[in-house]
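Page 37, continued from 36.
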């Protein structure tokens, strides 16, 4: 086992890291610094850029082959977007014709006629990317860890994730990806996207707008699969309309402006396509025997069975026969211990030397729930990259063992800290009455010692705060961060006394019906810091509110959450970075979750989704919050109206303390093997940006 650090050594390590974090690992790479995250305005400049002609640059003459341009040494070549080019754009700028080369792992299949040669597998218009530091080489297995097959997996599927458009590593610029280009009308109601000619699924079948049309008509708009159209695909309370123009062109038309669509598409794992040729067999609209197939597979209906072949959550699809557009594809059914993916022979990107990406042959995802065992594997050098589910408490251990494990620990800005949401729509009507009383939530907030949490769990590197978005968010103020966030147990006790919550002989408070007031706090290790929950339990019990802690699986927590069966929602922030709110405005309204974790207020959301036929009608302030959110969604990010509406939404959230925060701006320990090349300095460590997607894992390689 590893040894504990002395306080002096810990202080030296933390100060050393803070100093080293000021120096980028690759000085030639132009990136925003961690403390200068820009206000998100991704719907303005990139939209205009996407329809402009590429700016040609002078290229060296008499060149044999194309110049191996990188971000560190671009060789005088630049394009319309940073760090990448369309093929014709690159060839014109470089004055060459790119020749494609293949990963040796495919050579035998090509020779045997099982695979076409690489130039026939690539789209007619592949995306040409500049590697960060150097042209990479093929081979190797990228080793990662998740807690379970559907728990803590966001990071690992971000390694391979292909999105329609992509957020760059400056966390601001949006660039083409699967889509070759896009256009939008003046009022942001009509978005037109163009795909790459000749793009293929990983099984070699054509990828066209027919796959997007199927996704829209038969998945999004199917009431059995989606009882209500996801809010991301609505504006002005109405679903978008999809139009297939031709095989590579399609449109989304909204009833109201939707300037945040591009931001959403750049960071979501819920891509707008499905492999029609591979999954219609399991869809009732295409196969009358779909329910029979479901029964044979052990499901009650075709809907359940279909969800194992196509699902909005990538970690719930484990069928090797279902193709992908991602950099790596599943080739065998996963076990309870691991999931293995290999390079996609039809992946749509090449580097500036013409090598088809990805460089790394295999992704190996191990499932390990025990965090101590995860730490041991990290310090023994058995993990190539890991950040999700790591916490600051273990940072000194990672730092002390860098040499032994042959890795480097980065400490980019991470996430917001723990939030607590009392279930204001609890099925227990007495608890509901207590939780809806703002005095109770004020008392619970004032009882939390945020300074102590910061010192004990984050070495003083985070910031005590109420539950607010990132302080870099354009509509957030310092005053918001400190609303009811001081430590004042005396005032907390006074508020609880004022409510009539008297104490029994054991010192704990009683409910109005005379029963003991006990809050069951269920949590999962995926996102929660266990020590944080233990501290909060202690703080609340000091003012007489008894808390029972119960660790459950992520799956069990999601199930209780989705059935409104929680006393309190516990998670690590439903909103934080501005891009995540632009892309998913429902993070600002009940149930203050992202679809996988409903924090509270689920019956209110059901009432809205059903047009008032299901769930429960919410109070006026919640109706106002829904209305403001719809208005905010159609406002141009960064505009005066956008900021005004954002502040009004935060005012309602704060005054009612639907969410109670602890700290914000927590650094995110990020362990990266020294054997990996082309890994940049992370500018953020957060699922808000789909983890590693901005940092282009497909051009990482083993040195």
């Amino acid at each position: 086992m590893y040894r504990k650090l002395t306080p002096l050594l810990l202080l030296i390590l933390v100060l050393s890291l803070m100093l080293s974090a000021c120096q980028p690992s690759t000085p030639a790479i132009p990136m925003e610094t961690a403390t200068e995250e820009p206000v998100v305005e991704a719907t303005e400049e990139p939209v205009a850029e996407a329809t402009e002609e590429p700016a040609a640059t002078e290229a060296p003459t008499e060149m044999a082959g194309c110049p191996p341009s990188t971000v560190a040494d671009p060789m005088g070549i630049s394009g319309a977007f940073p760090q990448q080019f369309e093929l014709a754009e690159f060839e014109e700028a470089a004055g060459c014709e790119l020749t494609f080369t293949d990963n040796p792992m495919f050579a035998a299949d090509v020779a045997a006629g099982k695979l076409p040669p690489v130039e026939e597998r690539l789209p007619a218009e592949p995306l040409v990317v500049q590697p960060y530091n150097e042209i990479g080489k093929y081979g190797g297995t990228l080793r990662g860890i998740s807690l379970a097959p559907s728990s803590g997996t966001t990071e690992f599927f971000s390694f391979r994730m292909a999105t329609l458009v992509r957020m760059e590593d400056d966390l601001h610029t949006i660039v083409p990806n699967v889509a070759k280009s896009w256009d939008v009308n003046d009022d942001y109601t009509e978005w037109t996207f163009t795909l790459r000619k000749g793009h293929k699924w990983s099984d070699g079948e054509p990828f066209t707008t027919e796959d997007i049309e199927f996704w829209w008509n038969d998945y999004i708009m199917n009431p059995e699969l989606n009882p209500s159209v996801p809010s991301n695909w609505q504006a002005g309370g109405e679903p978008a309309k999809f139009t297939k123009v031709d095989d590579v062109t399609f449109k989304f038309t909204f009833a109201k402006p939707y300037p945040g669509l591009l931001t959403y598409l750049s960071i979501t794992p819920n891509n707008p396509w499905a492999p029609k040729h591979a999954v219609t067999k399991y869809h009732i609209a295409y196969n009358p025997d779909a329910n029979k197939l479901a029964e044979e597979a052990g499901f009650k209906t075709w809907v359940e069975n279909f969800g194992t072949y196509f699902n909005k959550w990538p970690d719930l699809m484990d069928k090797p026969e279902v193709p992908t557009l991602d950099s790596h594809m599943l080739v065998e059914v996963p076990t309870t211990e691991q999931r293995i993916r290999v390079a996609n022979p039809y992946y749509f990107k090449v580097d500036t030397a013409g090598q088809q990406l990805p460089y790394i042959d295999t992704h190996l995802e191990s499932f390990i729930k025990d965090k101590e065992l995860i730490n041991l594997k990290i310090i023994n050098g058995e993990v190539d990259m890991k950040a999700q589910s790591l916490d600051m408490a273990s940072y000194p251990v990672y730092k002390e063992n860098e040499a032994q494990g042959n890795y480097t620990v980065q400490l980019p800005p991470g996430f917001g800290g723990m939030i607590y949401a009392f279930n204001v729509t609890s099925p227990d009507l007495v608890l509901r009455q207590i939780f809806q009383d703002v005095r109770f939530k004020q008392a619970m907030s004032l009882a939390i010692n945020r300074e102590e949490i910061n010192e004990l769990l984050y070495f003083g590197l985070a910031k005590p705060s109420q539950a607010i978005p990132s302080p870099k968010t354009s509509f957030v103020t310092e005053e918001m961060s400190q609303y009811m966030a001081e430590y004042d147990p005396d005032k907390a006790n006074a508020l609880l006394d004022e409510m009539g919550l008297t104490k029994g002989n054991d010192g704990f408070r009683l409910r109005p019906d005379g029963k003991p007031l006990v809050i069951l706090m269920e949590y999962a290790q995926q996102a929660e810091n266990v020590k944080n929950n233990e501290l909060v339990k202690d703080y609340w019990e000091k003012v007489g509110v008894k808390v029972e802690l119960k660790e459950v699986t992520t799956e069990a927590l999601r199930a209780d959450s989705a059935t409104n069966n929680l006393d309190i929602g516990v998670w690590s922030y439903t909103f934080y970075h501005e891009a995540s709110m632009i892309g998913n405005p429902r993070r600002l309204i009940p149930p203050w979750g992202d679809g996988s974790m409903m924090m509270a207020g689920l019956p209110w959301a059901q009432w809205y989704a059903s047009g008032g036929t299901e769930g429960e009608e919410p109070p006026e302030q919640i109706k106002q919050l829904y209305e403001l959110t719809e208005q905010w969604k159609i406002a141009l990010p960064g505009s005066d109206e956008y900021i005004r509406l954002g502040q009004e939404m935060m005012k309602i959230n704060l005054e009612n303390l639907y969410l109670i925060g602890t700290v914000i701006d927590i650094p995110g320990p990020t362990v990266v093997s020294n054997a990996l090349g082309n890994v940049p300095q992370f500018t953020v460590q957060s699922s808000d940006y789909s983890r590693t997607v901005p940092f282009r894992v497909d051009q990482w390689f083993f040195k």
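Confidence is low (pLDDT under 50) at residues 1-64. Flag for discussion at group meeting. Residues 640-656 form the longest helix (17 residues).
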